[in-house]
Write a structure and sequence with these properties.
The complex is a heterodimer. Chain A is an alpha+beta fold. Helix content of chain A is 29%, strand content 12%. Chain A starts with a strand and ends in a 14-residue tail after the last helix. By secondary structure, chain B is an alpha/beta fold. The chains are: A alpha+beta, B alpha/beta.
């Protein structure tokens, strides 16, 4: 599917521009021959539209519709296009499994995202264009993508556009509660009805407490 | 359908399709509903669990009253009992609703919202606005604003998507981002419909707090909830956000519809969310537990989607498909790790600790299903069949299922699709998710099997599982 802007309904409010994960929408002056009354209008770069439909959802004026693509296309980054050791190192630094599915919609793995970063995709938008991640539900894969970028030294990527809110930052993590391997007493006390220590061990890869007596679970 | 347990009966009428906010009209393109298939019968939930309280409201007239009189009475009583003193005269209050409330409880949910608005305006002298916290699955949500004329009934009514502007807040465990438009008034009132959706995530810990970690939050927080917290600690996100200064400075109270798989059984309200959560959690475990565990008695089945709701959030018999999707593990038992494999960066080498898709689900047929939630991993694992026509085209064009067109077989009709699924898998059993409350629509042989297994499952839940679940949550 690909978006289409209905010129006479578009008010140039730019909300769609601020939420497009592939920055396929920009604002420009309305031409004299275009329908509509507002000075500004949104323009779509069709090749960069990956059917996320965030624009459709946020538009307050029903000025965007979706059409089937006449020529469907596939996007993705070949994991073999980057060094396997570097991919593994980046995933490990980000706390992301290289074979782990990160974007559940596009089925993008940690390794594919890492390869795209190593190939030069240094922002969430560039990663989406290179892999298709963040263009389905646009929600689930958010955090690990920001973690991968930060681990690669690109956590300071500027927002595009500057007023956009496709993403903000990395939210708190369970493992982030650990300082020198321990959780602060006040946090443990505040969440005393949660099996925090046990889950932290699991998140660290230690499943020993779940092994049954005498051998294999 | 009241009183004594009953056996298999003729199918109930599934709720009619609604026009979606994108203008799609499934009713005009779906040629046949699943209940019209030969061999589909209804297994009443009351036949499985005769102890369920009778509903005061249901969307199905055979299950309970469909008028909202009793809901309004209960809501007024609950509102009167509850403390709303945090709301000062002249202040603004955002009444935060959610799409699931409209989806599951329709008129009853709207009645509760209206009674809340009226009570607060009358007793606190405030201005109340309706704010709907949108969530995943929005792609083909029914157009609740128009269906219930929410602007006409509430005046200032607004849908607030999770992709909208955010606000960063500090919590005891670190930063999270909330949906800004939900929190712009002086105060807000939290509303909810208690049921078992997403139990594999919230594990019925701080159940009523969950929207503070998901529905009321931006993409960042939702993603962190899934990827950055443990299998039994994701709800720490919700509690941390709820207890943050930002939220507590605005929080004014909670009102909730208490439900069973048949419909609404009560309305409860409280300023003390922990106290309210304890009451509701105990009820939900009692009223959904047997049906939840009965799903584990299904050895092989074809899942048939025929209603609003997207995949794991499709409902049948009052429970979501996710209850079947992860039924092989009792995730209500907190001794079970039930680590979601898809969200774990490191995995144990041994089987059993991770929560995979239920291997009993051998194929899926999509007659009509909303989009908006990822489910393509399931299409990798099991044969998937669509019914030729616009509804199939909509799913193939869904942003969350970019590979569906490559993986699904498209059949000419619903009977053809079910026949193809049976032929491909050798499985005869069918279970339908068509939003019908109070009864599972199943193929007759599956219905007979579940009916036969129900007494043992109910006894196990009553004597073993439920006491353990309650004790693990301090509710014993």
């Amino acid at each position: 599917m690909v978006a289409e802007i209905i010129a006479e309904r578009c008010t140039g409010c730019a909300l769609c521009v601020y939420v497009c994960p592939t920055v396929a929408l920009t604002l420009r002056d309305r031409r004299a021959d275009e329908a509509g009354t507002h000075r500004r209008i949104v323009e779509l770069a069709e090749p960069d539209c990956y059917n996320a439909q965030n624009c459709l959802e946020i538009c307050p004026d029903e000025a965007i519709v979706m059409h089937p693509l006449t020529e469907p296309f596939t996007v993705g980054t070949d994991v073999a296009s980057a060094d396997a050791d570097e991919i593994r190192a980046l995933c490990m630094a980000a706390g992301v499994g290289s074979k782990q599915l990160i974007c559940m919609c596009a089925e993008t793995t940690g390794a594919e995202l890492a390869a795209a970063i190593l190939n030069g995709a240094h922002s969430p938008e560039a990663l989406s264009l290179a892999t298709g991640a963040r263009t389905g539900c646009t929600e689930l894969c958010h955090q690990p993508i920001l973690q991968l970028l930060a681990a690669a030294g690109h956590g300071d990527a500027p927002r595009n556009p500057a007023r956009g809110f496709q993403w903000y930052g990395i939210a708190a993590t369970a493992l982030g509660l650990l300082a020198d391997g321990e959780v602060a007493d006040d946090v443990r006390e505040a969440f005393s009805h949660y099996p925090l220590d046990s889950d932290l061990r699991v998140l660290s890869g230690d499943f020993s407490e779940f092994a049954p007596k005498g051998g294999q679970p | 359908m009241t009183g004594a347990p009953v056996g298999l009966i003729e199918p109930l009428a599934p709720p009619p399709f609604q026009r979606t906010w994108t203008g799609r009209d499934p009713a005009s393109v779906v040629a046949m509903r699943a209940v019209e298939l030969d061999d589909i019968v209804a297994l009443p939930v009351r036949a499985i669990d005769p102890s369920l309280p009778l509903p005061i409201w249901s969307s199905d007239p055979t299950l309970g009253p469909t008028d909202d009189t009793a809901v309004r009475e209960r809501a007024r009583a609950a509102l009167t009992r509850s403390d709303w003193s945090r709301i000062s005269p002249g202040s603004t209050v955002d009444l935060i609703a959610n799409p699931h409330g409209f989806f599951l409880c329709g008129d009853a949910y709207v009645a509760m919202l209206e009674e809340t608005r009226d009570h607060l305006v009358a007793t606190r002298g405030c201005t109340v606005r309706l704010r709907i916290a949108e969530s995943m699955g929005h792609i083909e949500n029914p157009d609740w604003m128009r269906i219930y004329d929410l602007p006409g009934r509430f005046g200032d009514a607004k849908e607030c998507p999770q992709i909208g502007r955010g606000v960063e807040i500090d919590t005891r465990v670190g930063p999270f981002w909330l949906t800004r438009d939900l929190f712009t008034a002086d105060h807000f009132v939290h509303t909810h419909v208690a049921e078992m959706r997403e139990g594999y995530l919230h594990r019925m810990i701080d159940r009523l707090h969950k929207p503070f970690g998901m529905g009321y939050t931006r993409l960042e927080t939702r993603s962190a909830y899934h990827f950055a917290w443990g299998p039994r600690t994701g709800q720490m996100v919700a509690r941390a956000v709820f207890e943050s200064d930002f939220v507590q400075e605005r929080y004014a109270g909670t009102i909730v519809l208490d439900t069973t798989p048949e419909g609404v059984i009560g309305v409860d309200a409280d300023l003390d969310l922990d106290a309210l959560n304890g009451r509701i959690t105990a009820n939900v475990l009692r009223h959904y537990g047997t049906l939840m565990r009965l799903m584990a008695e299904i050895d092989d089945v074809i899942a048939l989607f025929d209603g609003h709701g997207c995949h794991m959030y499709s409902y049948g018999g009052g429970i979501a498909f996710d209850c079947l999707m992860y039924a092989q593990v009792d995730f209500l038992d907190l001794d079970n790790l039930a680590l979601l494999k898809g969200f774990a960066s490191r995995l144990p080498d041994t089987p059993g600790l991770t929560l995979e898709f239920n291997p009993a689900i051998r194929a899926q047929v999509m007659n009509y299903m909303a989009g908006g939630v990822p489910y393509t991993m399931m299409t990798r694992r099991v044969p998937t069949f669509l019914v030729e026509g616009p509804a199939a085209d909509w799913l193939i064009g869904d942003p969350c299922s970019p590979w569906l067109g490559d993986r699904a077989a498209i059949e000419a009709s619903l009977p053809d699709a079910v026949a193809a699924a049976r032929r491909t898998t050798g499985v005869d059993h069918v279970i339908v998710f068509d939003s019908t409350p109070g009864a599972l629509h199943v193929s007759r042989a599956l219905g007979e099997h579940l009916l036969a297994r129900a007494p043992d499952v109910a006894a196990h839940v009553r004597d073993v599982a439920l006491p353990k679940w309650l004790a693990q949550r301090g509710l014993g």
